[in-house]
Amino acid sequence: METTTPLSVHQREDQGKLLLRVILALMLLFHGVSKLIGGVGFISGMLEKAGLPGAFGYLVYVGEVIAPLMILFGVYTRLAALVVAINMVVALLLVHTGEFFSLNQTGGWALELQGMYLGGALAVALLGAGRYSVGGAAGRWN
After folding, report:
1. 3-class DSSP state for residue 115?
2. At residue 1, does pLDDT exceed 60?
3. What is the rounded distance in angstroms from the CA atom of residue 29 to the CA atom of residue 65?
4. For 25-43, what is each residue's pLDDT tens digit?
5. C-alpha dist (Å) from residue 55 to 32, 44, 84, 132
6. Interatomic CA distance for residues 80 and 134, integer angstroms
7. What distance, in Å, lies between the first and last C-alpha atoms of the chain?
8. 3-state SS record for 93-141
9. Residues 6+ apart with CB under 8 A from 124
10. Nearest to 74 by CA among 24, 132, 33
11. Sign of the C-alpha dihedral, residues 117, 119, 121, 124?
């Protein structure tokens, strides 16, 4: 039977945190870069339709570019993850409300991607960045 030292357990935990952070951040950055290239007119229009100022659409850059970069590098990671979670809740309410109780063509939840982003962000917010981050083992900025 294999015995593990506390250090090896912590190393695996930190490796898991790093993997979760990198995957979440990179996947979200694809959406952010798309909005950097194509603009936020679509989002601003939906916000205005919902009775909110269209200028709020520019906040998507915070939730899909700035916050994912912070998560990726491990700088104020918990705060950045909460920003992503809020961004996802807004996206769910603004764009995907009609799909909330729907299944996709293969039988999965129609919002599984958005659900994974929200769940991943909440997990990162709870776990923090770990040792493999700008904040380091002490987690000063995590």
Report:
1. helix
2. no
3. 6
4. 999 999 999 999 999 998 9
5. 17, 6, 18, 36
6. 14
7. 35
8. HHHCHHHCCCECCCCCECCHHHHHHHHHHHHHHHHCCCCCCCCCCCCCC
9. 17, 20, 21, 24, 71, 77, 78, 81, 84
10. 132
11. negative
| pLDDT exceeds cutoff 70 at 137 | no
Q: Position of tokens 């659409």?
A: 57
Sign of the torsion formed by the C-alpha atoms of 24, 30, 32 and 33: positive
Structure token pair of residue 55: 């200028």
Q: Copy the structure tokens of residue 20.
A: 């979760």
Q: Global pTM?
A: 0.88
SS3 state at 51: coil
Cβ–Cβ contacts within 10 Å for residue 7, how many?
8
Mean pLDDT, the chain, integer: 90
Please, are residues 74 and 135 in contact by the beta-carbon 8 Å criterion?
yes
Cα 20 to Cα 120: distance, rounded to the nearest angstrom: 7
Residue 97 has pLDDT above 90, yes or no: no
Over its C-alpha atoms, the chain yields an Rg (Å, rounded) of 17
User: Measuring CA to CA, how many Å separate 100 from each of 68, 71, 94, 109, 118?
Assistant: 25, 27, 12, 8, 14
Say whether pLDDT at 118 is over 90: yes
